[in-house]
Amino acid sequence: MTALAFVETDEGFVRKSSLEAVSYAKETAGDVAAIVFGEAKDVELIGKAGASKVLHVTDERLAQPNIMAYSSVIAEAMNQEQATLLVLAKSSLGDPVSARVSIKVDAALVSNVSGLPSGDTVKRSIYTGKAFANTVLKAEKKIISIKKNAVIVKENGESPEIVEFSPAIADSDFTVKILKVEKQEGNVLLPEADVVVSGGRGLKGPENWGMIEDLAKVLGAATGCIKPVSDMDWRPHHEHVGQTGIKVSPSLYIAIGISGAIQHLAGINSSKYILAINKDPEAPLFKAADFGVVGDAFNVVPKLTDALKKVQN
Amino acid sequence: MKILVCITHVPDTTSRISFTDGNTKFDKSGVQFIIGPYDDYALARAVELKEQSGGSITVLNVGEAETEPTIRKALAIGADDAIRINAFPEDALFVAKQIASVAEGAEYDLILMGRESIDFNGGQVHSMVGELLGLPSVSPVMTLDIEGNTAKISREIEGGKEHIALSLPFIAGCQEPIAEWKIPNMRGIMSARTKPLEVREPTSDVSKTQVSDFELPPAKGDVKLIDPENIGELVNLLKNEAKVI
Ligand SMILES: Cc1cc2nc3c(=O)[nH]c(=O)nc-3n(C[C@H](O)[C@H](O)[C@H](O)COP(=O)(O)OP(=O)(O)OC[C@H]3O[C@@H](n4cnc5c(N)ncnc54)[C@H](O)[C@@H]3O)c2cc1C
Fold first, then answer.
1. For ligand 1, what atom is nearest to the CA of residue A262?
2. Residue B9 β-bridge partners
3. H or E stretch including A104?
4. Is B244 on the interface with A (CB under 8 A)?
5. Domain presence at residue A185
6. Which run of H or of E encompasses A307?
7. Contact at CB, B164 and A177, closer than 8 angstroms
């Protein structure tokens, strides 16, 4: 069986979550072709993660992520490769693309998948991480959209064969115009991050986020926050974690000055480890956490940052 | 402007989730059902757009009779009429097919819904409807402004946002801060009782996924508390036990 893996890039570098998709495809199907749009400076990594072939799409009209056109190209790639499985990482591009491709190729689609399949059944996270549903994909063609950490990336693959891929795309796929993209460069992206450092109202104001950023920096972590913090514009909305924000599944989630409202916990409870720092020993977050420090964040966080710096030197 | 708003009927965000019948059915006992929070944003924006430029709002739900109080709430918030497709929403494809068949030939200028439901969190329906109808779909939409036949949208992406322009009609999956949630007032609640709610039978029975059973996450062990004066121990745990640094 052949699987296709959709690989996304940031500033020309392959996303880590996409490498997870490639490895997932490899473990499930045996033979993997990956598809990547535009420049991929580290295309070797796609081979290492398990793809024997990389379809490289160079059409200039696709320099920006056009959802309808990407979907058409990916559906075409599945047909060309006779792929019966498409694997991709859940993302703001992967979500709409997977749904459209599922209609185009008549596939069963499951998202938020948290582990490798057993037969035609996958485990996916539901109720915002409060439960799982073992779900059967009832069609010959299948699309699996995975959560972060659904699989460990293997790095034993070979150098991939790189093939140009430029199917014809209908003009009707280009009716949506992307006028401008605003993106913070250089920061670790929240859904990609292996460690997330998040702050709540306990930080008192946006001017105190320096210590969150310092800690994130030593850990190579992304920064997150609770809903009221983004509602008050202390932090940008794309950092909002929880039931109505981003759901994260990093290896470590550090919650600082966050009480642990059920809606916030919903977005973080598939983290491997949770560390809570809160001055209130009764804060509900301590019930969800693996490690906890009862103390003043303004004292504990800088100390933790310093101690980590020492260990790393 | 003619707007269709698709809503889900889902457990309140504070609900404890549990299952019955050998983990094959969601346990509804003691659970309060609400309009999906993201759908509520879509509805709120639809009400604002109607206030600005007139038109009508139809709400649509695919669900069994038990969802009618949730639909009535949407009518109380400001929708003019409602359609309920009388079926259990089997999966995203099943729901998308029902929505597409309602929309076909009905000439909606806009189809709004939440970015995802908070029960199954698929985030697939809007794009499936778009593909079925041959229309663009955009999600998650943070702002939506319409002038004449053109819409300007900002869409959240990882680490930022994208500014988009497109022509009507299209489908949008909404999230905050597109509008403030609206609370129905007394007049709205009274008038909702008599607004038309049409029940239709499903037009397709296609679904491609099926839940075999549910699971709850394993129970968490007790938290390991570390003295704030002993941060070295915390670093040690992170390094050697969690192995994350
Ligand atoms: C429909 C709905 C959806 C929601 N979705 C989300 C969501 O997606 N994400 C989300 O986060 N919330 C969400 N919320 C909001 C949620 O219910 C909480 O309001 C929110 O998480 C904030 O909780 P809080 O007010 O306890 O503030 P928090 O910021 O969580 O609490 C402040 C904490 O800081 C501690 N503290 C204060 N000073 C210090 C100090 N110096 N050092 C250490 N600790 C200190 C306090 O002890 C307290 O525990 C949602 C709510 C609703 C109704």
1. 17
2. B35
3. helix A94-105
4. yes
5. no
6. helix A297-312
7. yes
In a domain, A126, yes or no: yes
A195 touches chain B (CB under 8 A): yes
- DSSP conformation class of A296: -
CA triple A72-A75-A80, angle to 5 deg: 120
Does residue A266 share a domain with residue A149?
no
CB–CB of B158 and A96 under 8 A? no
Q: Are residues A202 and A147 in the same domain?
A: no
Tokens of A219: 């850990």
| Domains identified in chain A, total number | 2
ipTM of this complex? 0.95
Q: How many Å apart are CA B57 and CA B192, to the nearest integer? A: 13
Q: Per residue in A78-99, pLDDT tens?
A: 999 999 999 999 999 999 999 9
Residue-range definition of the domain harbouring residue A49: 2-174
Measure CA B191 to chain center. Answer: 24
The fraction of chain B above a pLDDT of 70, given in percent, is: 100
Topology of domain B2-214, per CATH? Rossmann fold (3.40.50)
> Per the domain annotation, does A182 fall within a domain?
no
Contact yes or no for A175 and B130 at CB 8 A: no
- pLDDT of residue B126 exceeding 90, the answer is yes
> Min CA distance, A213 vs chain B (Å)?
15
Does residue A54 share a domain with residue A28?
yes
What CA–CA distance (Å, rounded) separates B85 from B61? 6
For residue B148, what pLDDT band results from cuts at 50, 70 and 90? very high
pLDDT at B232: 94
Ligand 1: distance of its center to the CA of B74 in Å? 28
Residues of A with Cβ-Cβ distance to B96 under 8 angstroms: 103
Tokens for A68?
A: 């309808």
Average pLDDT value for residue range B56-75 = 98
Tens digits of residue pLDDT in A180-203: 999 877 788 898 899 999 999 999
Where residue B12 falls among pLDDT bands split at 50, 70, 90? very high
Measured between CB atoms, which of A131, A136, A263 is closest to B210? Answer: A136
Q: Which of A138-142, A186-190, A233-237 comes out lowest in average pLDDT?
A: A186-190
Cα angle A90-A95-A99, degrees, rounded to a multiple of 5: 130
Q: What residues 224-243 of chain B have any CB closer than 8 A to a CB of chain A?
A: 224-228, 231-232, 234-235, 237-239, 242
What residues line ligand 1, using a CB cutoff of 6 Å? A 200-202, 226-228, 242-245, 257-259, 261, 263-264, 267, 278-280, 283, 296-298; B 13, 37
Note the pLDDT of residue A167.
94
User: Is the per-residue pLDDT at A313 higher than 80?
Assistant: no
Indicate the average pLDDT of chain B: 96
User: Distance from CA of residue A213 to its chain's centroid?
Assistant: 20
> What pLDDT does residue B219 have?
84
The rounded distance, in Å, linking the Cα atoms of A66 and A45 is: 25
Chain A environment of B159 (Cβ under 8 Å): 183-184, 187, 189-190, 238
Measured distance CA(A82)–CA(A76) in Å, rounded: 10
Residues facing residue A14 across a β-bridge: A9
